[in-house]
Amino acid sequence: MKALYLTPVLIASFGLATLRSAPLAESQRIDQLLRQDWDKAGLKPNPPASDEVLVRRLYLDIVGRIPTVEESRAYLSSKDPEKRIKLIDTLLASDGHTSHMFNYWADVLRLTDNVKGRITAEAYEEWLKKQVKDNTPYDQMVKNLLTTEGGVWDSGSIGFWQRDENKLDHLAYTVQVFLGTSIVCAQCHNHPFDKWSQMDYYHMAAFTYGMDTKGRGFEFKPTAAKVEEIDRKKLKSMSKEEQKAYKARIEAQKKEAESRVSREDMQQVKRAMQDVMKPLRYTSAEWQDSRLPSLPSDYKYPDAKPGAKIEPKTMFGHDAVAQPGQTRLQAFADWMTSPENPRFTTVIANRMWKKAFGIGLIEPVDEMTDSTVASNPALMDYLSQLMVEKKYSLKSFLRVLYNTDAYQRAATTHEVPAGELYHFTGPILRRMSAEQIWDSFVTLSKGNVDDTIDDDNTRLHQYLDDLATFLGTVKSKGAEGLVQIAKEGRAKIEDNQKKIEAKKARLDELKAKGEDVSDEIKALAKEASSLRKSSEKDILVALLGKERASDLRQGYKPEKPGGNSKPEIDRKALEAMTSEQRKEFLKAYKKGGGKDAMGLTARASEQPSPARPGTFLRTFGQSDRELIQNASDDASVPQALTLLNGPAAEVLSSPASKLSQALAASGSAADKVNTLYLALLSRQPTAAEKSILDGVIRERGDKAVADVAHALITGSQFLFVQ
Question: Which InterPro entries does this UniProt record tie to the protein (predicted)?
């Protein structure tokens, strides 16, 4: 076989179109500022990108996948002069954009469902997708994250606080993500490379330290059912004097209730229900305004003593002063998200610029200092102003960037060294993220599945409803009702415990005599566990009734990504297949996927978050979510092997895949190769490539199609965003 050489993407240029002026005034202003910078630097912009390059880039940048064959053909054949801006608007409004931006924010916020509070983590992911889909203004989304509290059944946003048990660590991540400032070093000592002191760190931590995530949503205190709960919404509308009187009245009611139920009784409740309440762990966040951080025992600076309580104070900008009815956390959220904050707006504008162009005006994006200067200060100032004008709508902001003349230019192919100024003569060439590669293979296998990413997780919500009902029932029973249930349950528990202890004592005697009782010990442990679960069930049934108690005891079992859906049968494609292909297709259909061994039924945003080590996504560099934006685009041998020999290659030849159906519908081997190019690269082969491909087809016949497929999916042209 002759070697198959493909024209490198780094030097290819196909059908360059004449660019129209940017359709948006804001886009034109950005281009003007860039041109001024080019003139000063003596540079010219990159040549215009072709329609073929641009359609693929827009799909990858906005919805995180390559376009389908039909989507590419529709764009390339369109004569509409407004087709580019219309495509941008369509993609930004699509569910695919929700999926793609969820992946982005999952990396930034370090979302992971591999935590103790799995239910809360999944509800957090669903909440974030809804924020992206609804285009919630960024400042409001951040404010919601910072000030959320209650149970996960109230809002999945409490997952933001559940992410880190150590609230001092949580503050460092919060400041780095939203203010672009790395202060983590100052947690243990004065920052060696910035002005922040350890005292500054604890002053900032005082704003957020009061968030308690260890509670189970219910305190076993001797209170009656009729005791009024503090209504935090009411508190917000009250003056400080009214708040004081309101809290005093609630406290008086509680003390009166305590006189009717002893603490000993409530301890009995706590012991009886300790297993029953386990599902409520890691499901709530509650603000405690009185909690303040203390300096560590090894604090060594002269401005305070170890163990001292620290009051809140901002590190820079104006003070965060609590208004009447506000907690200090709410004041902190208002301060952080204010347009007057010197870093909040700049950071998100810079993040979105990097999202579109591949490199920020400020690099790194989250290590800003007082001496930081953007590569184009005038442009950075304008982008910050634009973000405020767009009222922090990220879709509106990105729409402006994608409509600039600069974004339409061919990609810059040379690497920009760290510290070197880049003048944005076009976007930079980037390798696809792991999620973009996965989602592109999903597209090749299943077509456009974007509209499936925002389906509500019905099972999750059913379970959250069960938890909320359970907690509400516990509260409604009040102390007196719980004591009665606990006494009945405790009596059975103690009776069971006596039986277990008697059997254990007997086994100890036999063991002391040298007899082998290992099997009996295992049986006893199993019996003890069974009796404990039986007692737990009895208490749950007494609280909820048999049916809901059973649902709660079964726990939450998430559905597998993609469910059990089978590939859709395309009748026309089926008719075009040979009898052997048709046989393979129907066999795969009955199995629900056949050779689709990667589970290419759902986008990356619907997979475990993050994927488990050793899986396709992690092999291609998906973040482990331990650090902020910890993904990698480095090449590796396992990646090459996966593309050459793994299920990614197999699915290209599966009769159930959309690509195989498109190839089956094509005529000659040359037609099939053209289809491959359109599916994988959104273009046809160049004249130079055709002359090489014609020779390969003459020598290899139909086998040349598989050769070309392997060459394309392992090549830079497929794996890179041009």
Answer: DUF1549, DUF1553
Domain of residue 486, residue span: 213-222+261-284+458-557
Residue 369 lies in a domain: no
**Which helix (H) or strand (E) covers residue 212, if one does?**
strand 211-212
Eight-state DSSP code of residue 14: -
Distance of CA 386 to the CA centre of its chain: 26
Under DSSP, the state recorded for 430 is E
Pairing of strands 211-212, 150-151: unpaired
* Coil/strand/helix, residue 155: coil
User: Which of 131, 210, 128, 124 has the alpha carbon at shortest distance from 159?
Assistant: 124
Q: Distance between CA 277 and CA 275 in Å, rounded?
A: 5
Residue type, 241: E
Question: Distance between CA 10 and CA 163 in Å, rounded?
Answer: 41
Residue 96 falls within a domain, yes or no?
no
Q: Is the whole model's pTM more than 0.85, yes or no?
A: no
Question: Per-residue pLDDT tens for 617-676?
Answer: 999 999 999 999 999 999 999 898 888 776 666 677 777 788 888 888 888 889 999 999
Q: Which of 163, 170, 145, 109 is nearest to 282 (CA)?
A: 163
Number of structural domains found in the chain: 1
Rounded CA separation 83/72 (Å): 12
Residue type, 231: D
Tally Cβ neighbours within 10 Å of residue 184.
17
First and final CA of the chain: distance in angstroms?
30
The single-letter DSSP state of residue 668 is S
Residues 6+ apart with CB under 8 A from 442: 65, 449, 600, 601, 602, 603
**E strand or H helix that includes residue 143:** helix 138-147
> Which H helix or E strand runs over 383?
helix 377-389
Q: Residue 394 pLDDT > 70, yes or no? A: yes
Question: Do residues 64 and 436 touch, judged by C-beta distance below 8 A?
Answer: yes
Strand-pair partners of 309: 294
471 within a domain of the structure (yes/no):
yes
Please report the DSSP string for 510-562 in residue order: HHHTT---HHHHHHHHHHHHHHHHHHHHHHHHHHH-HHHHHHHHH---PPPTT
Question: Within a domain: residue 394?
Answer: no
Residue 21 or 436, more confident? 436
Structure tokens at 162: 């559940």
